[in-house]
Amino acid sequence: MSLLASCNSRQPEAHRSSFRYNQHNPITSLDPAFARTQNNIWAVDCLFNGLVQLDDSLQVKPCIASGWEISEDALTYIFHLRRDVFFHDDPSFPGGRGRAVVAGDVVYSFHRLIDDRWPKPGSWIFKGRVSADSPFSAPNDSTFVLRLAKPFQPMLQILTMQYASIVPREACEYYGRDFRRHPVGTGPFRFKIWAENQALVVVKNERYFETDDRGERLPYLDAVRTSFITDRKTAFLEFKKGNLDYFFGLESSYINELLTPDGTLKPELEDQYYFLKNPYLNTEYLGILMDTNNIAPLKRKAIRQALNYGFDRSQMLRTLRNNVGSPAISGFAPRGLPSFDPQQVEGFRYDPVKATQLLAEAGYPGGKSLPAITLLCNQDYLDLCTFITRQWEDLGIRVEVRLMETALLREQMRNGQAPFFRASWIADYPDAESFLTCFYSANTAPPNYTRFRKATFDSLYNTSLGETDIDRRYRLYRQMENILIDDAPVVFLFYDETAQFARKNVEGLPRNAINLLSLKRVRKR
Prior knowledge:
By secondary structure, the protein is α+β, with helices and mostly antiparallel strands. It folds into two domains: 2-228 and 505-524, D-Maltodextrin-Binding Protein, domain 2 (3-Layer(aba) Sandwich); 280-497, Dipeptide-binding Protein, domain 3 (Roll), CATH 3.10.105.10. Helices cover 26% and strands 20% of the residues. It has helices at residues 2-7, 38-47, 103-113, 155-158, 169-175, 232-240, 255-258, 296-299, 301-309, 313-321, 352-361, 382-394, 406-414, 433-436, 455-466, 470-487; strands spanning 18-22, 52-54, 60-62, 65-70, 76-81, 136-140, 143-147, 189-195, 199-204, 223-227, 246-248, 273-288, 326-327, 373-377, 399-403, 420-426, 490-503, 506-507, 523-524. The strands form six sheets. Strands 11, 12, 13, 16 and 17 form a five-stranded antiparallel β-sheet that branches. A hairpin with a 5-residue loop joins strand 2 (52-54) and strand 3 (60-62). Helix 9 (301-309) packs antiparallel against helix 11 and helix 15 packs antiparallel against helix 16. It is globular. The model is unreliable at 1-15 (pLDDT under 50).
């Protein structure tokens, strides 16, 4: 606690409300333009705001912008800014006092993001989407205008990403590339201390502009302390000892200490913790390379479909994940998205009889003469892949699991050298387009690791991008999903769920499908 105590020594410990959690992976940058990973995103969310934000139902809501209009041709977005949003106090401002945000700051932030002189991971959100001529403008201090090159319906959702956070020119120029260690934003917390690979401390922003339904100013917490214990078992022990208020994620080394086989918190722990499980916009799958580099058996659609019918997803989740997650029995885009509809998109269920019929249709009755197939996998998913391949073996399908380092596996997936591989896809923003883009033929890898190519799919995809009517757009999404199910370029495994544990004195934890730990409404009793 010494690092946290030093961040606010003027307040007695008994009167300070601090929230403590651990990240298994270190933070690499506090610059929102580099908020590519969950660990960076959670930290950046404390420190910065964008024009808009998502609520826990994944609806776009105002933030720095109090409202907006979209032109009839869906090419121009006009945002009206609040006048009570201030940057954090910082030496980069005259007198060290943070000033009010104006529309010019949005123009600067977005141009900075796409500046080719200093490439940033977040630049893709505007690449090929904004007008080449004056994409960002500020007619006055409270009006910002965004112009698109062509309609792109998920643009508002994209603007909720941490990449689109608003930053001040003064601080960016004052600190240069060291802005990653000296973040200055408008968020509910302001930066205090970052000892890389050890701990990050942020403290309450007393001038934060958002309030709750009763008019009380957010945030409720006085500080947030993030530790970086890389070993999950060690971090779990810290949670058990009371040194952490919050713990997330599951691993085989401790899952059975927390959950029953049915996926509920063990009764003896209910007086200490509570457990939150929620859909997470992550689809786990096995990818099949669809171009000419792939091996003969997987080129046959009947074999790909037989693989999908040939294992029990529900049993897999009960056995290996204590029912955290749900079987992927619909399309590629997961539960939690507003367009998800398993009645309209019927995927694969466990049906060994159907799998056997498909094998025979493909010319391999009972798997006879079917060559062995190699599945590439990393260590984290060995148990899952072993479970599946054993069930396939019962049908006569021989699949050998080959372990690879994660970095090498990803490289081979990118280069089209992985004929059959274990993978996952997490939404960049809460729209099914973020998943369906994985199969658009104009896309390379990533995201199109399977090299899937189908003209009817591409036509539907392009039409959906400009479709302004939500119901019609969702129908297009479902048509694309049904194409994927028929062609089976992937083996659908499961739709992920978040697993969050907190001590009983923690209130207001968010439950959202993008797995964002937003702490501005969290309290500690």
